[in-house]
């Protein structure tokens, strides 16, 4: 059986795709089922790129995977300590190690969180530039190491509201199924998996009720926003003020990968 190891953050950990028994599933589990693979999901909520490189990667290499997914970077953009150069080093070293170990590696271009949060333009623009910087790094890493690279940022269905859970940061079951099916399309030929095994796009569980969504927003949603308000919001506000004072967009220098 094919060994599949998934590295990343809460998206890969399955947040937004709850199961009736209280567990989470997510796109990696859906893809593993379609591929007939043995899944080891190492993804952790809140993980940054350096968490994947320093904590998840050693465990992944010990598992000797045939296929590995590295989908990370959104949390990096939501921190005041955002550093594209460090992201480049961490992502490049992670993917390089997995490829050297013989794994087929899956990577992705990430969607813009600001579009889902529906932030005001002055705050959304700095966040959009951050995710663009992460995606440029991911594109270079994918080209350098020959990963199977899914462009979630520009997929026509990505910003369909139905693809997102109530928090607008994690995919809904439908969104997780989109990720699983899109990655399946990329790996099925390489692994010789029949196209008939492609994951269904339609959810198997009922959507959360309006009451359940309202309860989440009133409890866990407000707690999440309070935490981010002490970190992300001041950082974005600082970038917004800089643009207003200088009359020019904030600039993120192009990052060169190590050895590039």
Task: Spell out the key features of this protein.
alpha/beta; 260 residues
What would you note in describing this structure?
By secondary structure, this protein is an alpha/beta fold. The chain is built from ten helices and five strands; from the N terminus they run βααβαβααβααβααα. It has a five-stranded parallel β-sheet, with helices on both faces.
Q: What is the gist of this entry?
A:
The protein has 260 residues and is α/β, with parallel strands linked by helices. The protein is built from ten helices and five strands, in the order E-H-H-E-H-E-H-H-E-H-H-E-H-H-H.
Question: Low-confidence stretches at least 5 residues in length (pLDDT < 50)?
Answer: none
Helix content: 40-55%
Integer-rounded radius of gyration: 18 Å
Report the order of strands and helices. Answer: EHHEHEHHEHHEHHH
Overall body shape: globular
The count of DSSP E runs of length 2 or more, i.e. the number of strands, is 5
Determine the strand fraction and express it as a percent band.
5-15%
For the biggest sheet, the summary is:
5 strands, parallel
Mean pLDDT, nearest integer? Answer: 84
Structural class: alpha/beta
Number of helices: 10
What strand line-up does the widest sheet have? 2-1-3-4-5
Q: For the record, give the distance between the C-alpha atoms at the N and C termini, rounded to a whole number.
A: 36 Å
